[in-house]
């Protein structure tokens, strides 16, 4: 059976001027599964928006300006994830009350604590987006997720620099499981 599949693939790639474009189909069950994963990521984006909104109060100068840019990135990610969920024919889950997100936040008394928390938030996002790439089947969503993951990894690098730590401790930033 494997040989027949290989032969069919080889035949399909022969002849004609260029390869025909293949349009993958996503079943309704796969779309629902993708929407569930996307809704979980949407919740993380909402967490990040609140984290930066609150954390900026303790920042000044360049770190505050960077946090403001990152806040806008997170808001755009939130909008993109909502659009993606709707594109799957599903509805984004409503946001929980702000307190439901912030009750788990640490006390942020200093700029250092804000940066450490922002790093944790970004690390969680990188890990979640990386994990989701293995379960999302809609090709356009995979592209969107990879793009957002790259931005979150860039955020981590900038925050590490602000903390005077190595900006890429590994060749590839993959995020770590939260502790």
The CATH topology label is: Ferritin
SSE order in H/E notation? Answer: HHHHHH
The percent range for strand residues is under 5%
Shape: globular
Draw up the topology in text.
Blueprint: H1 2-12, H2 28-55, H3 61-87, H4 98-102, H5 111-133, H6 139-162
Helix pairs in contact: 2-3, 2-5, 3-6, 5-6
Question: What does this entry show, briefly?
Answer:
The chain has helices at 2-12, 28-55, 61-87, 98-102, 111-133, 139-162. It is mainly α and 179 residues long.
Walk me through this protein's architecture.
The protein has helices spanning 2-12, 28-55, 61-87, 98-102, 111-133, 139-162. The protein is mainly α. It has one domain (28-162): Up-down Bundle (Ferritin). The longest helix is centred in the first third of the chain and has 28 residues, at 28-55. The N and C termini lie far apart (46 Å). Mean pLDDT is 86; it is low at 1-16.
């Amino acid at each position: 059976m494997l040989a027949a599949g290989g032969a069919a693939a080889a035949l399909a790639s022969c002849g004609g001027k260029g390869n025909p474009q293949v349009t993958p189909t996503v079943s309704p069950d796969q779309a629902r599964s993708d929407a569930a994963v996307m809704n979980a990521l949407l919740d993380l984006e909402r967490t990040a928006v609140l984290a930066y909104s609150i954390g900026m109060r303790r920042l000044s100068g360049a770190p505050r300006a960077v946090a403001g840019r990152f806040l806008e990135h997170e808001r755009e990610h939130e909008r993109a994830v909502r659009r993606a969920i709707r594109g799957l024919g599903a509805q984004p889950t409503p946001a929980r009350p702000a307190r439901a997100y912030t009750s788990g936040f640490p006390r942020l008394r200093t700029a250092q604590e804000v940066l450490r928390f922002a790093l944790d938030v970004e690390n969680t996002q990188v890990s979640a987006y990386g994990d989701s790439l293995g379960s999302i089947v809609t090709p356009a969503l995979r592209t969107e997720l990879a793009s957002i993951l790259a931005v979150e990894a860039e955020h981590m690098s900038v925050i590490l620099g602000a903390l005077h730590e190595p900006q890429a401790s590994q060749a590839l930033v993959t995020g770590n499981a939260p502790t």
